[in-house]
Amino acid sequence: MNEEEVKQLVQSEMDRYFSKYYKRSYPGFNIESGGPSQNNGETEYCMTTDTAQGIHFYKKGNCKIGANKSIELYAGGSAGVEDISVVISAEDGHVVIEAVSGDLTLRGNNIVLETNDGDGAIVANGAKNFRAN
Description:
Elements: H1 3-18, E1 22-26, E2 29-33, E3 43-49, E4 54-58, E5 63-66
Antiparallel strand pairs: 1-2, 2-3, 3-4, 4-5
């Protein structure tokens, strides 16, 4: 393979992976699109701060939101008592809410646990104790 063939091969590979690639850097953050990611395939829109926080969308349909300390969602300031203010929904697959090294608190006027499967179950598994008042 001569030098010109190597250049063409390298250029064709660069075109294949980076023809739609966009990156813009600003003080404190950058925006990328169309490039490969380590774990999630091709990026669609990624905004990342200098401290590795951000929101990332991938062509496969994944979205990742990351913060170094906390994420807070507020809604319902104008909602009525019958309105739903926040929805977390998965059309297929599971939903996991996890506090790795802290407590998980659900707080509301009423807490309703219900299944929508005729064979559905509600399982409570406490290693130490379970209390219902």
